[in-house]
Amino acid sequence: MKHKVALTVNGTRREDEVEPRLLLVHYLRDVAGLTGTHIGCDTSQCGACTVLVNGEAIKSCTMFAVQAQGREVQTIEGLANGEQLHPMQQAFWDNHGLQCGYCTPGFIMAGVYLLSQNPNPTDDEIRKGLEGNLCRCTGYVNIVKSVKDAAQKMAAAQGSGRPAAGTPVTAGGE
Ligand code: FES
Ligand code: FES
Questions:
Q1: pLDDT band at 169 (very low <50, low <70, confident <90, very high)
Q2: From ligand 1's centre to the CA of 59, what distance in Å?
């Protein structure tokens, strides 16, 4: 039996009928067509599926779609503002924070959440903040550099009064 789920995805309200067992990651990819959220494991360890739910970074393979009822979900597709990349995306580009890119949407969403909680993290805080995300290609050095650079870019944008593209409105959670 299907259940109705109503939620907001990247600012757009949606209502869909879904199986109660459907995971949020499958909902985003297969129902909403947002394939930027990746599936990299079946043990909830890799973080490739990370999205923001009400501003909090969540591994979307650990949550049913129906549990997102009434919530606001933001995926990698919701970060850029038209052609203008989010500072975190730009920083990954500028600092070679990716190789194959499979893990990158998860790292970027986790990085955005990290900076929403701690706008000026140290290298150690970045490594700790991203410990739920695994990359099979890079040595993490450029990923840490990317998040640091994003923090600087976002601070500069705030100083200039420019809102960062796609910045989450809420930032709850631990
Ligand atoms: S696919 Fe969700 S943690 Fe790996
Ligand atoms: S860039 Fe390939 S898995 Fe991270």
A1: very low
A2: 6
Would you say the CB of residue 101 lies under 6 angstroms from ligand 2? Answer: yes
Angle 10-161-152 from CA coordinates, rounded to 5°:
80
Model pTM greater than 0.90?
Answer: yes
How far does CA 124 lie from the centroid of its chain?
20
- Residue 174: the pLDDT is 32
Are the CB atoms for 165 and 150 separated by under 8 Å?
no
Residues 6+ apart with CB under 8 A from 81: 165, 166
Q: Ligand 2 atom closest to Cα of 99? A: 1
**Protein residue closest via CA to atom 4 of ligand 2:** 135
- Ligand having the closest approach to the CA of 62: 1
Sign of the dihedral defined by the CA atoms of residues 13, 29, 88, 86, in that order:
negative
Q: Which residue has the tokens 């500069």?
A: 156
Calculate mean pLDDT across residues 134-161. 93
